Amino acid sequence: MSFFDKIFGGKEEGSEKNLLWKYIQSEEDLKKAIEHSFNQKIAIFKHSTSCFISKTVLKNFEKEIENSDNKPELYFLDLLAHRSISNKIAADLNIRHESPQLLVIENGKVVNSASHQHISADQIV
User: What does pTM read for this prediction?
Assistant: First the structure.
């Protein structure tokens, strides 16, 4: 990895492959995630893989979760690859699309949401 990639986040390094996440790549994956919210609170992180701000927020969020005793059920949505799923989330859960965005879902409803620098692991508790 080059010096500039380290500073500016040029190449995705691990975030999309991180074991913290379950990946939403289809409407069926989204349906299963929402169904799971009836058993326990879940969180969906909506991430734009081409946005430096989104990359920074994602890395900070992952560090918070890794250093936390609370290990919530986390789902990851790549907005560039799956924009139609993001649109479905906005429509079905009646929440405005933002990026990056963290949605906390319980019993099929958004109980907390945040975007950009307001995203924190504390929102899931």
Answer: 0.85
